[in-house]
Task: structure prediction
Amino acid sequence: MGKITENAKYIIKLTLEADSLVERPDIIGAIFGQTEGLLGQDMDLKELQESGRLGRIDIIFKDTKGGKIKADIIIPSNLSASETSLLAASFETIDKIGYTNAKIKLQDVEDVRDKKRSFIEQRSKEILNKFYSKAPDTRETLEKVEKDMKQKEIKNYNGLTSGPEVDSSNEIILVEGRADVINLVRYGIKNAIEVGGSNVSPHIKNLANKKQVTIFLDGDRGGDLIYKRLKQEIKIDNVARAPDGKEVEELTKKEILQSLKHKKAESEETKKTEGEGTQKQETRRLPEDFKKKIGPVIKEMLGTKEIKFLDSNLKEVHKATYDELSNLLKTADLDNVVAIVMDGKLTNELAEQMENKGIQAVVCFDKDRFKTKMKVYGIHDF
Result:
């Protein structure tokens, strides 16, 4: 059934018998066509799939003896029990596949959560047995107390997570998120503040105009993307980077101090990233097995409303929400991105922005009708 069913609450299991040869597209077409409008707009199959409340319809062919076709139909559902039952009953009204007489019968509606409840019960017993066997560790207790004390120093600066000295310090250290700020404050660096999303806050811009700004980036390509976006909107004086492959939120005190000690002036960093960008452009191409590798990625994203930016090795460079996509396409330099995978609709406007950024492929759940040079795949292509 694929990973798409892992988050479903119910699995609708149906059997199909058809009097002559039919193929998967014929069956899917009959299911969508003959149930359209039957239960009202709120239960429209296409709308349910786009919103993540209904998963991908799987057809498993079993028997073709005597010119007749037998198959199992599997449909994951995140609807309520009553809505799932209503939908399951509607499938039994289908009596033709194309021009062929057919019969669809409900076999079962499986509650996926029953298996999870059994697992939780068994696992909780194991955890409880281990819980009482562990003696309290004095060192761990002291570390926890110290951590809690540091947490009290975390401030809210106009809706942004920050250290207690952002206002009083002549310099601010700009990091990606709340966890990064907490880690820096934990080790005594109290002038850190988060960027806070894809749209740069006016409060950040105001601070940048008055103070020295050091941006502290993760040691991956996501850090490059954030840097290129921010330098278009605010003044940056220095750039510090976490060690390769590490994020600021997971660094030790020694790693943090070393990274800040070796920070570079923004002008030096710009020369470095521009040189790297030229090299990346030369190798910016889709892998030959793109469709095969991307299938599991798009199935896992159903219902998340997420956007993933992928490089030529199909590794995730950055992740955002669908609502942030348009602004990112306008402001970010995506020179190391070759493909975008999105749980949402690809509009003509978004496609034009992506083409202008050199994106080569888009995988989406739905799209408008338009022409584009990019390769565009829908959920039903997998």
